Amino acid sequence: MIRVDGRGFHRFSDRYNFEKPNDLRALTLMNESAKVVMRDITDVILAYGDSDEYSFVLRKQCQLFERRESKLISTFVSTFTAAYNQLWSVHMGPDAPLDVGHMPTFDSRAVVYPSDKILRDYLSWRQADCHINNLYNTTFWALVLKGNQTRTAAALRLKDTFSKDKNEILFSEFGINYNNEPEIFKKGTILLRVTKDVTLKNPQDLSERQLQREEKKLKKAEIQQLHIDLIGDDFWNERPWILNN
Ligand code: DGT
Ligand code: MG
Ligand code: MG
């Protein structure tokens, strides 16, 4: 798994006036940049992103760059960063040009998960984190923007509260039912490659020509974007090919 994360995006999102708590244009820009990476690097079988981060899951048998970590993380982060910069004005509009003093940059890391179970735990952790942050941010910005509270007062109000307390504040004070918030905000984004006729053989068992043909199919495959639960078993049971890759 390789994860990229925006560097100093707390300040960066302020500098370019991202909508609070969620800017759909910025999330779309992240998603489209991740698709560029996925189209370019066919070893990616699934990607999950929210906020300023994206996790790319590589197939178990991945032999890209002989699995050298520096090559992998630098290629992923530079491809992602290049796409993010190139697609910036497409999604953020012509009125917010990037200035060289405030460029969007990303860091990246690689982690090898020793089993499917632990890989699933990792992805579940990221999606749970998305939910927790989103519930907090939604309530925090409702208190500030709709409740006219200072940021300090809002933070104090939310200190030591549980999910149910935040849901209650949103509902009783602002008429917001958290369940009805957009799924992309609550669940983040899952990207999958839709491949029906790709061989399930191990790449080591394929000839050079067969490998090239498979690579072509993977490059052309459609990328599906989902905003659904991946913590429960349903997601995985309905898509057994992800972990069998
Ligand atoms: P880092 O990753 O250690 O360099 O520091 P940050 O500042 O990037 O921190 P991080 O990655 O933990 O948090 C992401 C920040 O990005 C968080 O402060 C909120 C901001 N952000 C991400 N997406 C949005 C958005 O759609 N709207 C707004 N207003 N802010 C966003
Ligand atoms: Mg960040
Ligand atoms: Mg982050």
What does this structure look like?
The chain has ten helices and six strands, in the order E-H-H-E-E-H-E-H-H-H-H-E-H-E-H-H. The longest helix is centred in the middle third of the chain and has 31 residues, at 116-146. The protein is 51% helix and 14% strand. A six-stranded antiparallel β-sheet has the order 4-1-3-2-5-6, sandwiched between helices. The model has no long low-confidence stretch (mean pLDDT 95). 26% of the residues are buried. It is globular. By secondary structure, it is α+β, with helices and mostly antiparallel strands. One magnesium ion is lined by residues 5-6, 51-53.
> How are strands sequenced across the largest beta sheet?
4-1-3-2-5-6
The bound ligands are:
2'-deoxyguanosine-5'-triphosphate, magnesium ion
H/I helix tally: 10
**General form:** globular
User: Beta fraction of the residues?
Assistant: 5-15%
- Structure class: alpha+beta
Helix content: 40-55%
Average pLDDT confidence is: 95
Q: What is the count of β-strands?
A: 6
Sketch the major β-sheet. 6 strands, antiparallel
Helix and strand sequence: EHHEEHEHHHHEHEHH
Poorly predicted segments? none
Q: What's the alpha carbon Rg, rounded to whole Å?
A: 20 Å
Through-space gap between termini: 15 Å
